[in-house]
Design goal:
The structure is a single chain. This protein is α/β, with parallel strands linked by helices and about 325 residues long. It has a single domain, classed as Luciferase-like domain (TIM Barrel). Helix content is about 45%, strand content about 15%. It has 11 helices and 12 strands. The strands form 2 sheets. Strands 1-2-3-5-8-9-10-12 form an 8-stranded parallel beta barrel, surrounded by 9 helices. It has a two-stranded antiparallel ribbon with strand order 6-7. Strand 6 and strand 7 form a beta hairpin.
Amino acid sequence: MTVTRIGLQIPTFAFQDVADRDLFEKVAEIAGVAERSGFDSLWVMDHFYQIPIMAPESDPMFEAYTLLAAIAARTEKISLGTLVTGVTYRNPALLAKQVTTLDLISKGRAILGIGAAWHDTEHLGYGFAFPSVKERMDRLEETVQICQMMFTEDRPSFAGNYYTIDQARNVPRPVRASGIPILIGGGGERRTLSLVAKYADACNLFGDQETIRHKIEVLERHCATVGRDPGEITKTRLGGIVIAKTTAEAEKKAQRLAKVRNMDETRLRAYAAIGNPDTVAAQIRDYLDAGLDGMIFNMPDADDLEIVALAGETLSKVIV
């Protein structure tokens, strides 16, 4: 089963001329256009502050699962998930319950995207512990195991170093008997991709074509170690897309983006597919040739509904 082929991530909620009380209506509009134009999944970040690479931390930020549940009620077929949930933010059993609730509200469209968490400033501000990388990775492994069990088993128990459940109920059950797909984000070669091989239905990577090709080779080696077919795992990349009807328009937008995010030309080109529909399509094909099953796109101008539609229509012709 392919978890997603064409995903849209909404990276910011600082929409021009939209008051705070109207922000959700704008998000719902974006989701609806994305669904109709060809995107098959919609993603939001699991953060409480805006992250530095995107915009000032004082910009608006929704709580992810509350937002996704509201979007679920306004959409019909697009899959919904976080890219990605920080493992330190929620007790694993509570997380499993939240994602199951999202799955039921959406009639089987939830995806659990999860990772080891990284934003130390956010942890400090909200009072979350921010343990070592090793401990966060250990917690990630235990959390994924607990969520898998609660998605598929009746009253499972688990005793780990950090988390336990004791005949935990998760009723009503997820819509799919096989459980809710789990996507693990990150490309750490020793631990993260090993966890993907053991547990995940999908992984999300970062980097240029050469980096993606290498990460997939590493994942395949981990799969061989545990006796798993790597074809069972949906492999995606998160990157940007700056698209317009003409290349000149797209380039102007790209340069504005580079200035806002303090990117040099090399970083900009490595991060985003930029251009008119034909140019963007060619860049996307190069990534698919590196071994990806799909791609998730971060759209800095997602509040422009015409551009969201143009992106969806373009991508759905390339990623099939």
